[in-house]
Request: fold
Amino acid sequence: MKVLLVSEFYPPEPNSAALKMADLAGFLTERGHGVTVVTGFPNYPDGVLHPGYRRSLFQRSTTNGITVIRTFMAISTKRRRFGARMKGYLTFMFTSIYGGIAAGRHDLVFVYSPPLTLGVSGYALSRMFGAPLIVDVNDLWPQAPIQLGLLKNPRLVRMAHDLERFVYTKSDRLFFYSSWMRREVVRSGVPEVKAEHHPFWVDTDVFHPSPEEGSVVRREHGFGEGLVVMYAGNMGLPQGLGTVIDCARLLDRIHPGAFRFVFVGGGADRERLIGLSQGLSNVQFVASQPASSMPAFMSAADVLLLHLDKAPFRLGTMPGKLLAYMSCGRPVLVGLEGEGADIVRNADCGVVVEPQNPSAMAEGLVRLLDPDVRRRMGDAARRAAMERYDRVKLLAGVERRFQEIVEEHRRGGRSRGGQT
Reply:
């Protein structure tokens, strides 16, 4: 089976979209399938090309048996601006089509969304190849920019909803890692049989407890003796990490020296957060690290932290880093609502607090000062990752569905079953 993967993001970019697509490409290649990835030139999280890359229209390379085709897209350091992001989405929508054409005929086209505009690229390529199209829906667009007030013009709102209907209608299958998102889309009129739930996964061999390496990281970066509370990943506006800074300020007053907040990574909000933390002795920032170093950094923490600001469309959001946190065997503190919070509660692997509530976050962290509580929750986190979200188990199911969908398409029919 030859599979074409289309995604705006791909390593060396460190975000969850890139890692998910790399995991899928690697697994399918290991299983003997031919895989081509069409993606942009790496510029996440700061809108700056990564070292070793230059702006060009087209680049082809092969790594570990995976062909990677990179095509031009407009990039900007002003990632906060919706217009700048839309310019990138639209340029890549068109250039990814010629990237797919250059890849040649494939048996299946799999598109990562957002951006939803790539559903148009996937549709064009799937029709050229006579292949089925699967759109992997990782966020509900255009609900997000509309509810955030970024998309206000009534005409543009209608166009965005038209795009959503087009992509959902023209896709042969829609995959959702979130059962909440799947339910919402089915309620909007998409046939239930077309929408499949495939949970996100984590490589439990890569992300595993590494106490010795964690000790080295703590020593090299001077984390000190307090309880290390770590946020690792992109520091963007949706993460609402100002709440964490407010929590750190509160705990610095009532429990001086007991906690150390460590932020690892980059992103559009990083400099603002550094400014907010001025004068706090219990906050530390570490630059972005290679993906290969993240298990050691996560193992250096006593508690791993996640936060997302409140928004109705985020009820189905489950940040990929949550599973990496759990797989490293550390208790988690999450300021989340919806599906991500339910995962933590069901696994009993951490503390769930109300988002945007520094006092609640502080109370949760004080609870985690007890080493027995942390040990119990950390063990539960690792166990849940291995039993429910292991990469090999879940990707084997995805591979099986790919093969079934390709066979159904060749026979000219659609499945009545599918994973739900």
Remarks:
- The longest helix spans residues 82-103.
- The chain has two domains: 2-201+390-411, 211-388.
- DSSP finds 15 helices and 14 strands in the chain.
- Residues 2-201+390-411 form a domain with the Rossmann fold fold (CATH 3.40.50.2000).
